[in-house]
Design a protein that fits this description.
heterodimer, A: about 290 residues, mainly alpha, B: about 325 residues, alpha+beta, five-stranded antiparallel β-sheet, 9 helices, 18 strands, about 30% strand
Chain lengths: ~290, ~325
């Protein structure tokens, strides 16, 4: 904005949008904060009273709490690792000119269009099911005992499903970044005597750093809130083996009807997400300037 | 050492034959310029020598060794690209040291060579900057620095000055020529600018549609063009061609007269015409003239020549400065 006049005009023009966004964000947050200090159970809504920090204490001392935090972390890091590494590999693969390139690219991207519960149900019933899933068929073909994925490796199974959903996103972002890599740079490196692996390490990876950052930041935001995949597959079990923080809050609110406890968990989740965001911005955000 | 021999090198992209077959001998220490209009295959030829493209048939030898199937890194050549192709996330120092690092040279030796190259190219104070913080000429020098630290047997330049402004281009032209004089390494330089070719080359290779039209020193090409294309391409402004009666008088299908080889007169001469645009530069005057016979020619007069738009003018060719071409375009 060049002049002071246009500056204040611009401020005026964008004010409604910002105010709307603020209300949109502040009202639910404030309500959650308010509920988190109440003894408020839907089974007995008439008997609502001030609880102080009891809800927080209750949520925090729940033996499932730390487990759910750990599971959330494992889920986020696991999915990030699979999608970033896999995304780079697939992006490099489909960046090469091949026959039927357009169709291959659409196929690679298509999992992103499948809704999370649907994807999870497909994986549960058609791929990972111990008696008629594809994995079981493969195991039987080789004469091995089929794996009961959701019973034996519940969290890993969910990581696999979520990673499958997010791989197209990572691939897409990384592919566009790869396509903007200057071909002459690669040729120059080739003339400088850099073999393929060195070219990847010294040219391709630094070039993709920004795109990788974007993938990590955006995915982390969404992965902290994974919920549908857990609900339709393991229901957080066995025990709490696949319960993440979001699912724990769901359980408090919708299974125990404990609005106050769930709200306290929600506030804790917000704080944790912000801590995560600060660390992430510190660690990888410098690539974004 | 850096002698390069091309034996019947052919290159086709699918059905399109870009280079139908080139034989060329480049001696050690020579400054060779490939020149030609855009799309003539000069960059492709350079990339074939570099190993960035595979030859369709034929043989490339460096110092007598067949390198036709060797990868670019194995050929011991260094290349400066049109876009400079610097590595954007590395400092200038790391850019220049990159080929040495890839060759697993000891750090101390790397450092020595980088600082030596930086001194030659006046890059000392920029070593810790990123390429994005440099001007076009500085980036050009970094690209050259990255090439010279390897001490290659030959340098390949792919239109290195075309992204620079006119003044800088003249400077860099001189710098590259000086570099060649001090390093005495073979250099192959691709350009579409015949001024660069004339000023820098020991040997010019004129290319058209993938064919070598003529090979020779700049003055040979200027004085004895092998055909009409070379005559028209070398020299600035371009040679004027006259056909028909004017040519028949010299016993040729077409005659060529360079703009600087006209005798100008306002009273009498062989070819009467009318002055169109007159470009007065002080040192020279370029006249665009429409001859009465219908041809459009350019004439250069030294110093100031006082004619203006619409004036009558008479041209005659200077003695012995008329190039005669046959019907097939070859010089007679």
């Amino acid at each position: 904005m060049a002049t002071r006049q246009t500056q204040s005009l611009a401020r005026l023009m964008r004010a409604p949008a910002i105010v709307l966004l603020l209300i949109w964000m502040i009202v639910p947050l404030a309500m959650t904060l308010y509920y988190s200090f109440l003894n408020y159970n839907l089974l007995n809504p008439a008997n609502t009273s001030w609880a102080g920090f009891f809800n927080y204490q209750y949520f925090y001392t729940d033996p499932a709490f730390w487990e759910s935090i750990w599971n959330t972390l494992v889920l986020v890091v696991g999915v990030l690792a699979i999608t970033v590494v896999g995304g780079i590999l697939i992006a490099m693969l489909i960046d090469k000119p091949i026959f039927g390139q357009g169709i291959v690219r659409i196929l690679v991207i298509s999992p992103f269009f499948v809704m999370p519960p649907v994807a999870a149900l497909i994986w549960k019933n058609m791929i990972m099911h111990p008696s008629y899933g594809v994995f079981a068929d493969i195991a039987k073909f080789f004469g091995a005992q089929p794996v009961d994925w959701f019973a034996q490796y519940p969290l890993f199974s969910i990581i696999l499903i979520v990673a499958w959903q997010w791989l197209p996103f990572a691939t897409l972002i990384l592919l566009t970044s790869l396509q903007s890599l200057d071909g002459e740079q690669m040729e120059a490196a080739e003339m400088d005597g850099a073999p393929a692996l060195q070219r990847f390490i010294y040219l391709t990876l630094p070039h993709m750093a920004r795109a990788i950052t974007v993938v990590i930041l955006i995915q982390t935001i969404f992965l902290l809130g994974v919920y549908a995949e857990i609900l339709v597959t393991t229901n957080g079990g066995p025990g709490n083996a696949s319960t993440n923080l979001t699912y724990l809050i769901y359980r408090a609110a919708r299974l125990n009807f404990d609005i106050g406890g769930a709200a306290a968990g929600g506030i804790i989740a917000v704080v944790l997400a912000n801590i995560c965001a600060i660390f992430l911005m510190r660690a990888v955000g410098k690539n974004l300037d | 050492m850096g002698s390069i021999t091309l034996k019947n090198v052919r290159k086709a992209f699918g059905d399109v034959e870009v280079i139908p077959g080139v034989d060329l001998e480049i001696n050690n220490g020579e400054f060779v310029v490939f020149v030609g209009p855009s799309g003539c295959g000069k960059s492709t030829l350079l990339r074939l020598i570099a190993g960035l493209e595979d030859v369709t048939s034929g043989q490339i030898q460096i110092d007598g060794q067949d390198v036709t199937d060797a990868g670019p890194a194995k050929r011991g050549l260094a290349m400066v690209f049109q876009s400079y192709a610097l590595y954007p996330h590395m400092s200038v120092r790391k850019n220049i040291a990159f080929p040495l690092k890839m060759a697993k040279m000891p750090e101390a030796e790397q450092e020595k060579r980088v600082s030596h190259a930086a001194k030659i190219l006046n890059l000392d104070s920029y070593l810790d900057r990123k390429p994005g913080q440099l001007s076009g000429g500085q980036r050009q020098r970094v690209a050259i620095g990255r090439a010279i630290v390897r001490e290659p047997s030959a340098f390949l330049f792919d239109e290195p000055l075309s992204n620079l402004d006119a003044a800088l281009r003249v400077n860099m032209r001189v710098e590259i020529s000086e570099l060649h004089n001090s390093l005495k390494t073979t250099m192959i330089y691709v350009t579409h600018d015949q001024v660069e070719a004339m000023t820098m080359a020991d040997k010019i290779v004129v290319l058209r549609a993938g064919n070598v039209e003529q090979v020779g020193s700049p003055m040979e090409l200027y004085a004895r063009p092998a055909n009409r294309f070379v005559g028209g391409f070398i020299g600035s402004p371009n040679m004027n061609f006259l056909e028909g009666a004017a040519a028949a008088a010299h016993g040729a299908h077409a005659i060529g007269v360079r703009p600087e080889h006209w005798r100008l007169s306002t009273s009498e001469g062989d070819y009467p015409g009318t002055v169109g645009v007159a470009e007065h530069l002080g040192s020279d005057t370029f006249l665009h003239i429409d001859l009465d016979s219908g041809e459009h020619v350019i004439a250069r007069a030294e110093g100031e020549f006082p004619v203006h738009h619409g004036d009558r003018i008479f041209l005659s060719a200077q003695e012995g400065r008329v190039y005669k071409f046959g019907k097939d375009g070859l010089a007679l």
